[in-house]
Write the C-alpha cells for this entry.
Amino acid sequence: MSTLEHDNNTGQQTNVDWRDHANCKGRLPLFFAPKAERPEARARREAKAKRLCDACSVIAECRTFARENREYGYWAGESEEDRHLLGYRVSAPIGVRTRLAREAAQQKQTA
Ligand code: SF4
C-alpha cells in the first residue's frame, strides 16, 4: 500500500509507502508477543506500543492494512483481540483464545 506525497521543492508527486513513516521502525519486539508471554507482560508491552502508535503519522493506513490483511500482533493501537471484537476476521486471535480458556475454567469452578 502506498500513498502519493507532494514534493514542495519539485512540485511533483511521489509514491511513498506508508511504512516508511512508521514510528515502530526498529521497535518490532514491542508489537509481537514473544513465546509464552504472560498476560501482565503483554499488557505492559502493548501499553508501550500504544504510545508509539498514538504519535504515529500513519496510524490510519496501518489500521486499515492490519484489519484487511488479518495481521497478528499489535497494529495501530489494536491487538488481534481488538480487531476480532470489532468484527474483522482474524485466523486465531490469541487474546480471544486466552479469554475463552479463562472463562471455561471459571465455569468449571462454579459448576
Ligand atoms: S500505527 Fe503503530 S504499528 Fe502502525 S506504523 Fe505506526 S507505530 Fe507502527
Summary: The radius of gyration is 18 Å.
